[in-house]
């Protein structure tokens, strides 16, 4: 059975490229994953199909109303799908969450717009998640980032499954530096050890590089317990 992604968005056409290209496009074609897009504007009941309104208490912009969105969730999303609200105020998305979610049968990603969601929508979701400490115009790019991170962990999506175990974050460290041909690029040469054919020395060098890079760029990762 396909891993099922459901996405609630007011701008479904933004997903056209993702659906057609690259590994996600291929995973859809081979039915390793499925993607159902839901525009909850269809559940607005007034003449203008309104999905947003002015905030109580005043303030800038418009807030997404709860009723059409929650109606859409109830009518179109499988009950057992994990429902994730995308918001800068959420828990930070990371590789561990991607791994956890890849073990489920599917997830639902809810993309906000404008000033974000009426607070009462949170009672109808399982998690509120942010992809980083910055503000996007809408949740669609965040949903695509989460989809890619989860989908590439599913069996059959990445050609070489070994590459997953050696990647950044797979075991709590960043990846080692990679080199390909040519051996000399404008005076920058490939480290000798990588040309030595000595696999033990290469493995040792790579581990040292991973430690040094993580210490320099992301010391916070070294403070977290290392998980396999
Ligand atoms: N007023 C909100 C705030 O200050 O937190 C920002 C709303 S933002 C302009 C509109 C929508 O984009 C949000 O509802 C959310 O769905 C999405 N979004 C923006 N930044 C995001 C992030 N870092 N992670 C996940 N979703 C994000």
User: What name is given to the CATH topology of the largest domain?
Assistant: Alpha/beta knot
Number of helices: 8
- Quote the average pLDDT: 95
Strand content: 15-25%
Question: What percent of residues adopt helix (DSSP H or I)?
Answer: 25-40%
N-to-C CA distance: 27 Å
- Biggest sheet strand order reads 2-1-6-5-7
CATH class (first level) name of the largest domain: Alpha Beta
Biggest β-sheet strands, sense, barrel: 5 strands, parallel
| Count of strand segments | 9
Q: What is the CATH-assigned architecture of the largest domain?
A: 3-Layer(aba) Sandwich
The sequence of SSEs as H and E is EHHEEEHEHEEHHEEHH
Question: What global shape is seen?
Answer: elongated
Q: Helix- and strand-based class?
A: alpha/beta
Instruction: Tell me the number of structural domains.
Output: 2
From the alpha carbons, calculate the radius of gyration and give it in angstroms: 21 Å
Low-confidence stretches: none
Name the hetero compounds present: S-adenosylmethionine
CATH H-tier superfamily of the largest domain = SPOUT methyltransferase, trefoil knot domain
């Amino acid at each position: 059975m396909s891993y099922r992604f459901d996405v609630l968005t007011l701008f479904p056409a933004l997903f056209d490229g993702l659906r057609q290209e690259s590994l996600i496009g291929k995973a859809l074609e081979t039915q390793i994953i499925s993607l159902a897009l839901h525009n909850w504007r269809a559940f607005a009941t007034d003449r203008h199909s309104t999905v947003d309104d002015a905030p109580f208490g005043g303030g800038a912009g418009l807030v997404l109303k709860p009723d059409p969105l929650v109606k859409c969730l109830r009518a179109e999303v499988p009950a057992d799908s994990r429902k994730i609200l995308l918001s800068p105020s959420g828990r930070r998305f990371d590789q561990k969450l991607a791994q956890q979610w890849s073990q489920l049968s599917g997830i639902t990603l809810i993309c906000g717009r404008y000033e974000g969601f009426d607070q009462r929508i949170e009672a109808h979701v399982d998690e509120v998640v942010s992809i980083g400490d910055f503000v996007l115009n809408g949740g669609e790019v965040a949903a695509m980032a989460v989809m890619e991170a989860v989908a590439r962990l599913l069996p059959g999506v990445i050609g070489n499954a070994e590459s997953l175990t050696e990647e950044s974050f797979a075991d709590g460290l960043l990846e080692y530096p990679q080199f390909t041909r040519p051996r000399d690029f404008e005076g920058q040469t490939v480290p000798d050890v990588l040309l030595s054919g000595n696999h033990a020395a290469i493995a040792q060098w790579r581990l040292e590089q991973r430690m040094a890079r993580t210490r320099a760029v992301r010391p916070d990762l070294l403070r977290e317990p290392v998980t396999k």
